[in-house]
């Protein structure tokens, strides 16, 4: 089955896209988790769904189009990010209210566009649950560009993002432009969310951004380590999940997230065993 | 008389409905150890956020190192240990070294950075914890790490907002002695915010009593010698004499 991935160009594209997403989703996810903003990914993914449905509807209506649902998905995600920033400014004291607003509007719009495009079809199904279905060269190129942008953003602003995540007031006093940086951060999040949907689907994007991080935090000491292990856990889950999904004909979102959850469970278990063993050893020393 | 490094004139501040600060006027001279005291809600945090430029000045003037605060480029001269530092996310995955590095404002190479971090931690006797996870330390140890982060870029002025909340009384004494050392040996001007007027009068060189406006600014010894009733009035809350046995 691994040969299938290597031999067929389109499947190979899916594997490459998966590897890219398995890197950028947990990379950004680390910052999202420590800033306690996991819900943002959920909000944005549902807005992206509206964009995907809009793209499908347009495709159906005007068969020859320059853009694909993937493009309109990205566009909607970015617009959603801008609206969240704006709402947070308006509701300074209740910043978290922006998420349910944007999420519900996203779902509402999705329903409307799906209905207009003549109801649920296989495309919508794969947008919701992810897929191992073929990814075109154009889409892969777009995911590659998004990944380059995300990595460049994190590398350039690493120290400032870390400072802002740890303690925003101290960061601002030391000269970090918090508002501008937050603005770009949410834009980058929108891009990662829309790229990840191609693989894991709308419902499980936030899982790919948070589960590997949750696992990694249990085993790492420093922030840098947390990032490295998150990416490793993310990549392992994506590769195993894609292959299993292809083999068992299950949408990739399910297999990837279940692999990720198993890794988390296994890690927690090993930590527990390790703890019990150290206590036992200490007791023996004491005796 | 030396030029003050901070100068505040006619500052007023209001949130949506209430005026929190009114007619605030004072100077901070280089080398001072200022205690800023007042009951909860008296506007201490608001006032220092204005000094730090993270709350927008509404009325009056503040100058820092000779520049109007609106145009002041900090570059590490004023540093800060925030009230929130006590209530940061304890599960945050970061080492002491990473946390202290946040305070480095200039571009340095890796070796210089390591040295700066190590020396700052040494000042607060925490150098042996450099690779530990910040969440594994006790409250008092974390507090010292935050001081190290605040002094790693050699600030001229260090502002601490209620740093001893949640630190037990024995460690509070240690903590004040540490601040005294930073003030005397490194020459860092200090502003220590507290709602507890007790022990700090022994250490500070200037006492500022704030309750919406400045009720007292002067020598802490003179303040201590006043009758309870007058002090309560200046502090804006009841004070009982606590006898110190040292
Ligand atoms: N961002 C804010 N919006 C509205 N009111 C505020 C805000 N921050 C503080 N306050 C109010 O201003 C008053 C002074 O607060 P603060 O400066 O934090 O006092 P202190 O630090 O002395 O306890 C309090 O009544 C507080 O509720
Ligand atoms: Mg306060």
From TrEMBL, chain A:
Q: Cellular component terms, GO, for this chain's entry?
A: ATP-binding cassette (ABC) transporter complex
UniProt topology in membrane: Multi-pass membrane protein
The subcellular location is: Cell membrane; Membrane
Q: Which family does it belong to?
A: Belongs to the ABC-3 integral membrane protein family.
A single GO BP annotation from the record? response to zinc ion
Query: Which keywords does UniProt give here?
Result: Membrane, Transmembrane, Transmembrane helix, Transport
Q: Which Pfam families match?
A: ABC-3
The record, for PANTHER family, names: ABC-TRANSPORTER METAL-BINDING PROTEIN, METAL ABC TRANSPORTER PERMEASE
Gene3D superfamilies in UniProt: ABC transporter involved in vitamin B12 uptake, BtuC (1.10.3470.10)
Highest taxon of source: Bacteria
Transmembrane residue ranges: 15-34, 64-85, 97-120, 140-158, 227-248, 254-270
What's the name of the protein?
Answer: Zinc transport system permease protein
Fetch the InterPro entries from UniProt.
Answer: ABC_BtuC-like, ABC_TroCD
From TrEMBL, chain B:
Family annotation (Gene3D superfamilies)? P-loop containing nucleotide triphosphate hydrolases
Keyword annotations: ATP-binding, Nucleotide-binding, Transport
Q: Name one GO molecular function term.
A: ATP binding
InterPro entries in UniProt: AAA+_ATPase (IPR003593), ABC_transporter-like_ATP-bd (IPR003439), ABC_transporter-like_CS (IPR017871), Metal_Ion_Import_ABC (IPR050153), P-loop_NTPase (IPR027417)
Q: What is this protein called?
A: Zinc transport system ATP-binding protein
Which positions fall inside the ABC transporter domain?
Answer: 6-236
**Which family does the UniProt entry place this protein in?**
Belongs to the ABC transporter superfamily.
Domain of life of the organism encoding this protein: Bacteria
């Amino acid at each position: 089955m691994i040969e299938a991935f290597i031999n067929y160009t389109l499947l190979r594209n899916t594997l490459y896209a998966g590897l890219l997403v398995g890197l950028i989703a947990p990379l950004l996810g680390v910052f999202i988790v420590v800033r306690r903003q996991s819900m943002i990914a959920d909000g944005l993914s549902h807005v992206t769904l509206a964009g995907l449905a809009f793209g499908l509807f347009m495709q159906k209506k005007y068969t020859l189009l320059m853009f694909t649902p993937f493009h309109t998905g990205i566009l909607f995600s970015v617009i959603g990010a801008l609206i969240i920033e704006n709402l947070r400014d308006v509701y300074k004291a209740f910043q978290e209210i922006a998420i349910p607003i944007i999420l519900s509007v996203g779902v509402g719009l999705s329903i409307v566009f799906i209905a207009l495009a003549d109801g649920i079809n296989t495309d919508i199904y794969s947008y919701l649950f992810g897929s191992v279905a073929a990814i075109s060269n154009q889409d892969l190129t777009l995911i590659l560009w998004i990944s380059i942008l995300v990595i460049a953003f994190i590398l350039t602003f690493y120290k400032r993002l870390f400072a802002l995540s740890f303690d925003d007031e101290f960061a601002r006093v030391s000269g970090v432009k918090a508002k501008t940086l937050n603005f770009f951060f949410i834009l980058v999040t929108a891009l990662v969310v829309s790229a990840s949907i191609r693989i894991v689907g709308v419902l499980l994007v936030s899982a790919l951004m948070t589960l590997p991080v949750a696992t990694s935090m249990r085993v790492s000491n420093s922030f840098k380590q947390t990032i490295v292990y998150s990416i490793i856990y993310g990549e392992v889950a994506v590769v195993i999940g894609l292959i299993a999904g292809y083999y068992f004909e299950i949408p990739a979102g399910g297999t990837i997230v279940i692999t990720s959850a198993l890794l988390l469970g296994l890690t927690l278990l090993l930590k527990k065993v390790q703890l019990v063993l150290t206590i036992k050893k200490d007791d023996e020393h004491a005796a | 008389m030396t030029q003050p490094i901070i100068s505040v004139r006619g500052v007023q501040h209001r949130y949506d409905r209430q005026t929190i600060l009114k007619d605030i006027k004072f100077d901070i001279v280089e080398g001072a150890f200022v205690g800023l005291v007042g009951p909860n809600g008296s506007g201490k945090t608001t006032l220092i956020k204005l000094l730090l430029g993270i709350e927008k000045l509404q009325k009056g003037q503040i100058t820092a190192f000779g520049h109007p605060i609106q145009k002041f480029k900090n570059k590490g001269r004023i540093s800060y240990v925030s009230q929130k530092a006590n209530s940061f996310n304890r599960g945050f995955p970061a080492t002491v070294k990473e946390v202290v590095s946040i305070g480095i404002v200039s571009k340095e190479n890796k070796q210089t950075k390591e040295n700066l971090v190590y020396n700052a931690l040494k000042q607060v006797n925490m150098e042996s914890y450099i690779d530990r996870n910040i969440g594994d330390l006790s409250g008092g140890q974390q507090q010292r790490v935050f001081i190290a982060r605040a002094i790693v870029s050699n600030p001229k002025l260090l502002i601490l907002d209620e740093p001893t909340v949640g630190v037990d009384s024995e460690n509070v004494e240690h903590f004040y002695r540490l601040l005294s050392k930073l003030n005397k040996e490194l020459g860092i001007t200090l502003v220590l915010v507290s709602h507890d007027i007790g022990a700090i009068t022994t250490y500070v060189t200037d006492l500022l009593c704030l309750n919406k406006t400045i009720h007292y600014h002067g020598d802490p010894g003179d303040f201590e010698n006043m009758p309870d009733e007058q002090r309560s009035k200046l502090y804006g809350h009841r004070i009982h004499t606590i006898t110190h046995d040292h």
